[in-house]
Amino acid sequence: MKTLALIFLLSISAAAETPDEAALRAEVRGKGWIVFSARSGKADYDLFKMRPDGSSLTNVTHTPDFNETYPLISRDGKQILFRRATCDRAIDSNNYGAQGAAVIARFDGSQAVTLGGDGEFPWASWSPDGKQLLCMSPKGFSIVEIATKKVVRTFPRKRFFQQLTWSPDGKWIVGVANWPDTDWSITRMDIASGEVTAVNKNDCCTPDWFPDSQNVIFSWRVLGQRINNGYGWTQLWRNTADGKNPQLVYGEDGRHCYGGQVSPDGKYVIFTGDAQEDGDPGSGGAPMALMRLADAPIIGGTSENLRKKFPDTKPGPVIKLPIGWEPCWTYAGQ
Question: Which domains does the chain have, with CATH numbers?
Answer without folding.
Answer: 2-330 (2.120.10.30)
